[in-house]
Structures are given as C-alpha cells and as structure tokens.
Specification:
By secondary structure, this protein is α+β, with helices and mostly antiparallel strands. It has two domains: about 60 residues, no CATH class; about 45 residues, no CATH class. Helix content is about 40%, strand content about 25%. It contains four helices and eight strands, in the order E-E-H-E-E-E-H-H-E-E-E-H. The strands form three sheets. The protein has a three-stranded antiparallel sheet. The chain is elongated, with a radius of gyration of 24 Å.
Amino acid sequence: MTRTHRRGRDILLHDDAAPQPPAPLPQEAMMAELGIVPEGRHYLFASFRYERLQDAVAYARLARARGDAVAPTPAALPAPRAPTDAERHEMVALAVFARSGRYHFREFVYDRLSDALAYARRARSRLRTARC
C-alpha cells in the first residue's frame, strides 16, 4: 500500500509493496566483513595480494559462495624468500622472471614463485597437447 502526503503536490512517503534493497556498505565495513586487509597500495585476502580492491572483493565473495575454507588474512604477507637453484633453473626453462620481489610469466604477475611456476607448467602442457 502506498501512502502519500498532499501539500501542493504528491510526495511518496512509503511503499509497503516494494522492499528497498539494503544500503551499500561503506568500503571499510565491506572489507572487514569479507576479511580484506589494506596493505599500502595493495589489498590482502587470505594469502593473496591484489592491486585492485574490486579483485579482492570478487575473490572473497567467490570463496564465500563456494564455501571455501579460507585461512585468516595476515596483517602483511611475509617477505619472499630467494629461489633455490632448482627453482631458478625451472624459472629460466619456463620464462618466469623476478622483479621487485614479484614473479612474472607472460602478462601475469604473482606474489609467490610456486604460483608462477605452476601456471607456467600448465601453459607449457597445454601448448604441447595443442601441437599433437
């Protein structure tokens, strides 16, 4: 039922039939609710670092929707360790390189060497199977 107040013109005061969507959360409250922590120019969720808040939010919501068990977000990620000789050899073989404490493969940037190497291995495997 819609009620109006008349004083020169109709003004909608209340519409019982149309529920109002919840007001959007302020950014800080949304980040706290999703477990996202700001770190300088980056955002942390679980053990991942994102350059854009919307990427962190999207992954946090996806993890929540899937019911993933997510480790608590640390206040900061640990400093990366130096790659071992075996990892350096694999980096060269897979065209993965390090710059400013991050690992690069093609157009992708990773905080963890293990993630960069895993994706590079998958990409190499796909390329081999496509050639067959």
